[in-house]
Amino acid sequence: MSLATLATVSSRVRRFTAALIVTGLASGCSTSGPDRLEFQSDRYDQAFQAAGEAVRKQGMPPVLTDRTGGVIEARPRLAGSVLEPWRIDNADAGQWGANTLNKQRRRVRFEFLPVDFVPPEPRGEDVLTGPPLPGSTEGELRLTDLETFDGRVELRVWVYVEREHRTGLRRGTWSRVGRTFATNPMETRSPEDGTTRSPGLWTPVGRDEAMERRLLADIRSAMGDD
Fold first, then answer.
1. Are 98 and 155 in contact (CB under 8 A)?
2. Mind listing the pLDDT tens digit for each residue in 93-133?
């Protein structure tokens, strides 16, 4: 292949990469939305269902749903890069760049609590008797049963950004430049839908507050409060 041909191919590759970046930036998500939601307890089931559906639409199905305690946790999903312009989960150029240069994922957690909830202060004299059973009065001070609670409820969401790191690095002793990684046969393979299950290989690096607001806006819209 001649030098002229190589230069032409290189130029086309640069233009193609630039086009992907521009497309990715143009397709970024909106960052508008509330930082929390408040509603009456008689709408709790509606809000709980809307929260689960909001993350399911993001390709992150719930893996933990606790209606009594008011907690939903979704399966983490890999964040989109500029090489995936069809993904619209990034809000700005900074997110597109960070998720392109690093392998990162998002983890979502919803928490429902009474508006005036105050965590009880430990006194050091309480007897540990195990988790309270659903419907019992034994755990009233430790757990609010949101399925029977009467009052105002607050919904907040946390979207944590986690970065993958590789364990078991093995430096080459012969070439001094080669490297390999040891593998753990007990680790499960990640599913093909972009979500992740591998434990212990991800380090939290921040929060995606823009996605938090988008999720809450979607829930508010699903509840008909727009």
1. no
2. 888 788 788 888 999 999 999 998 766 666 777 676 666 66
Residue extents of the structural domains in the chain? 21-119+139-164+200-222
Within the chain, strands assigned E span 37-40, 62-66, 71-74, 77-78, 104-114, 152-164, 169-171, 179-181, 202-207
Q: DSSP secondary-structure letter at 69?
A: T
| Amino acid at site 169 | L
Of the candidates 193, 148, 157, 168, the one whose C-alpha atom is nearest the C-alpha of residue 45 is: 148
Could you read off the pLDDT of 165-211 as tens digits, one per residue? 777 777 777 766 777 777 766 655 556 655 655 555 788 889 999 99
Q: Which of 171, 159, 141 is nearest to 204 (CA)?
A: 159
